[in-house]
Every structure is written in structure tokens, then in C-alpha cells.
């Protein structure tokens, strides 16, 4: 039996899970929401971390009331939902978490392919179809399949360390390059006022950057002492905000509305930027593996696949990646999927379900266990988090769906393939 993770290593996993595609899109998200994006980032960071600590406490309550949860659970998030909201709540939560992580991992594939194609074109000065990101989807997807066959996060802890190191280095390169006096920086950046539509999309993008709650219980589940998960949250979110704010502010201030969806593809190409892109690809590869793991475990439990390494596990996880590749080919714009996932499923998993489940567990006095109480200020704040998540999530989802439907009639990788073969 393997020893559980230390809370410091768990914090690395939290940063690795969140600091992937999210921070690259933050400068563009500020374009959508305007200067209100800065207080939104601060509020989201505090609110999500507050709710995440309550999510961690929820699992500690499960351990306290039902001793079987002291052993690692295959689906910890769903177990919290089951004990707090019953079997129906468990099923709804399972669908939400699985689709959330499935969609997030799909975003990572698109972003990896986009940056890999950029690297190859920079190295060869060739912008032909051979280095199109749509071509990269097939190559990258097939290459990722064997890595998804791994077990649980503690089986590939090295991925979190690599991801955090790569992100920190990329952040430094981005900031230095932005203030190095690049020719691409406009003389007079424009900061347009947000519209209702753009604000809704920006809400989803910012929330996506902080939306790793669906994986948090899986990380906590592999800890040696799960009651210390709150320390992991503090360390992880402090590290995240330290990287997010400088990138978002510098990109938005210097480029204004000229910033692209991906800040790394906005700055001028250079050797340092090439290294940063390569490091971020490493980060996203590691984050993809971490995100896919809970999805795979849930599907395997539904299909009654043994927990040990076997051919059925390999088949299921391979098919999952193939489905993600198909979506990438159909909608190759990572920003569109990011806005949709951030505004809908991540909102549920991060803003709505954790406070709701925690309050229901606290208020459950039906068993012989120790009765717990909650301060009124804490309950009010948790309710406010739910309300903000629901209102913002609904608006963001509606706007994102409209954008995706409109874009689907214009261009996909299938039309690109046809163009390249002509």
C-alpha cells in the first residue's frame, strides 16, 4: 500500500490542475469584462478557495460518520454528493463532474495542438497545412492515449511538479517579453466598455481559471492526512493568484483589445517565447493526465471494470481520448469550449455544489454522530456564492452556446482538411 501525499505535494497538484489553459486566456477575459475583471479575479479566488475548503471538510465529515471512507474512494466527489443529497444527487453530480473534466481536457488538447503548431511553424518558417493545429490534434491525441492508462494521481506525482515549474517559468517569460518593448504592442491600446454578451463570456473564462474543484476531492483522497487539505488550498490558491494577476494585468494594459485568446501567441516570437510555449505544452500535457483520471475512474466503475491495470481499462481510456479528439476537430477554437465549460459545468462544480453539499451535511442530524453547527456569516456567504454562480453561469452558458453554434457553421478542422487536400 502506497503512502499518501503530503499537503505540500497536494498543493502542487491543485496548482497544476488550475494553472493550465486558464491563465493564458485571462488577459483576453479582461477585454470582455473590462477593469471589473481585476476585482472579479480577487473575488473568485477568495470565494472558490472558501468553497473548496468546505468541500474538503465535507469529506472529513464523511470519514467521521462512515468509517469506510477512511480508505481511498474511487469517486470521492460523488460520495460527498451521495451522503449529502442522496442517490439522485449523486447521479446528477457524477454527470456534471465527468462532463466538466471531459470538456476541460478537450480544451487542453486544442491548446496543446495550437501551440505545438506555432512552435513548428516558428522553427521551420513554414505555415503550410503540414503544421496546422488540426493535423496536430491527431498526432497529439494518439500520443496522449498511453499516458491516460496510469492509475491515480499519486501514481504520477511527477506530473504536478513538472506542471507547476513549467507554468512559473512561462509566467516570467510572458511578463518580461511584454515589457521588453515589442513591436506588436499598439501605441494607444483601447479598453472598450463590456457588453452584456462579452461580460458573460468573460465570466466563464475567469471562472475556468479557478475551476478545478471537480478534481479536488480526488487529490484530497490520496493525501496521508485529509484533514490538512485546507493547508493545500491556502498554498495552492496563493500560488495561483501570484501567477494570474501579473499576467492578466500586464497583457491587458499593454495590448488592450488587441490581445488574443492565448497571451503566449500574442507576444512576438522569440527564443524565450518559444521556450515558454514548450514549457506550457509540458504543463498542459500533465494537466490533461490529471483531469482525465477522475473521468476514467467513473466510467470504469459504471462498466464494472476491475481497478487493476488491464486491457479493458486501456480500451475505455483510449476511446475517451478519441472522442475528445473528435470534438477538437469539430470545434478547434479553444476559447469557445473554455467559455462554455467555465460558465456551465465548472460553475456547478465550483460555485454551487460544494457550498450546497457542505451545508446539507452540517444540517444532517439524522444519525448518532456528533452534531455540527455553522456560523450565520458563513452560511450567508455560502448562499451568496451559490447565487452568484447560478446567475453568472446561466448568462455565460447561453452566450457561449450561441457563439459555438454560430462558429460551427463557419469553419472546423473537417473543412480545413478538405482545403489542404485540394
UniProtKB/TrEMBL annotation:
Native organism: Cherax quadricarinatus
Q: Which GO terms describe its cellular component?
A: vacuolar membrane
Pfam families according to UniProt: Aa_trans (PF01490)
Which spans are transmembrane here?
35-55, 92-123, 135-152, 159-179, 199-216, 228-253, 273-293, 314-332, 338-359, 380-402
Show the taxonomic lineage: Eukaryota, Metazoa, Ecdysozoa, Arthropoda, Crustacea
Report how it sits in the membrane: Multi-pass membrane protein
Q: Which Gene3D superfamilies match?
A: Amino acid/polyamine transporter I
* Protein name per UniProt: Amino acid transporter transmembrane domain-containing protein
Alphabetical list of InterPro entries matching this protein: AA_transpt_TM
Q: What is the protein's major site of localization?
A: membrane
Q: Keyword annotations for this protein?
A: Membrane, Transmembrane, Transmembrane helix
Where it sits in the cell: the answer is: Membrane
Amino acid transporter transmembrane domain: which residues? 10-397
> GO terms for molecular function, please?
L-amino acid transmembrane transporter activity
